[in-house]
TrEMBL record:
Signal peptide: none
Segments forming domain AB hydrolase-1: 13-239
Protein name: Alpha/beta hydrolase
InterPro entries: AB_hydrolase_1, AB_hydrolase_fold, AB_hydrolase_sf
Any one GO molecular-function label of the UniProt entry: hydrolase activity
Source species: Plantactinospora mayteni
Amino acid sequence: MLTHDVAGNGPAVLLLHSTVCDRRMWDPQWPALLDAGYQVIRCDFRGFGETPVPDRPYSEAQDVRDLLDALQIDRVALVGASFGGQVGLEVAARWPDRVGTLALLCAGMPGHLPGPDLRAFGGAEDELLEAGDVEGAVELNLRTWLGPEADDATRNRVREMQRHAFDVQLAATEDVPGLDLGEPDLGKITAPCLAISGRYDLADFRQIAARLPTLLPDARHLELPWAGHLPSLERPAETTALILDFLAETWPA
């Protein structure tokens, strides 16, 4: 099972992290969600934080469903950042009865083909890692994913999480493939969705957020003029207020 934290009572909210980070990225939101009257869960995907790398073919979406089953949570609000948002979309598409609402922060999307900026980033990261320059790859991620509002403490926090993920993943002795479940049909999503994008983010994620209202039956797009790719860390109080307002409307405690 995915390593996770769970606390509080009330409607369940599951926080899904970006792959630049781990479940610690939600430290700023955790107490506010508890104080608002929710049961709050956060988890580490495989190879991040305290969850080991996979030892057999796996699916992040299935991992999330298995975690909900183990916690006996029938229905949940999903709050996902970046790759966590992509996983949230897949969970909501495969098991729409399990997801009550979706708050997506600069989310990826199943089936999205990377544009030139995202391909260039991936190529540069691969080149640095293949050369053994892990520190260089960490700093590349900081430059790419954190917007101008991120302070030094936030940069250090993300630096620590990204370095830990690289150390865990590079130490793995074999590359375990993901399970091929087929591309999910986003048209099956029934949950209301808030798709947040950042003005300073890569074009891929801005385009995904703008496109989701054309694909989902009840979705709205909000662009933050100050944000990069990780708004919940760049301006945590403001982003937390946006999440809480959306949950109060669609998933009230």
